[in-house]
Amino acid sequence: MTTDPSPDWYTHFFTELPNEFWRRLTPEAATAAEVGFVERHLGLAPGSRVLDVPCGSGRHSMALAARGYRVSGVDISAEAVDHARRAAAEAGLTVDLTVADMRDLPRDGEFDAVVCLGNSFGYLDPTSTRQFARSLAGAVRPGGGLVIDCGTAAESVLPSFDPSPRTLDAGGITVTATNSYDAEGSRLITRYHFADGTRELEVAAVHHVYTSAHLGEVLTEAGFTDITRYAGTDDQPYALGERRLLLTARRGTS
Q: What is the pLDDT of residues 34-46, one digit of tens each?
């Protein structure tokens, strides 16, 4: 019998082998396009304070810092944050990096913008997702901007759902991923097998699948306004069957 992943799976999933796979998989051009999207839609002024959460291994944090922004990153993976600190130091960049749960954010409105990139918004159950949205709103100043990246919105996942195993290779690390869908809990469950020739690891991830409308409601309840949906960094509008949803918003001023 296959064991159901724990609700807090993300607290122990992101260890060295999975993190290194994603570091090798993502091209620099993709990071540049995502940071360009953030700059374009949030209208960041020089020296703006930006919070990257969860920041993972710091690819967006460092790209933003390299463009002159004052960046803080938060992630629950100590391995990822340690890697980001080393990479930032080697690049001569100043980034404030903290190991913490993404719901545990400063709530003094000190940031001009908050970004949640890399498809992590669906990690949490509905109650915790609302808590996370409130934390994002508390971290950003009134009128400040928000960008959320979601690859598991219902309109993206369900039209083309495929339970067949998929295999990817990134710099000598191979991963086989197999999806299943929990219709009762509206959860996408992905079981991974990582291997690099000397190490193997089997782990599972869970993404809670929310409709585009529900995500908008969660952000509105948290105090965000001007919510806009895009299908990617090329600014095309989001529609049924698009593989990715990027949401932009502003924290309300009232």
A: 999 999 999 999 9
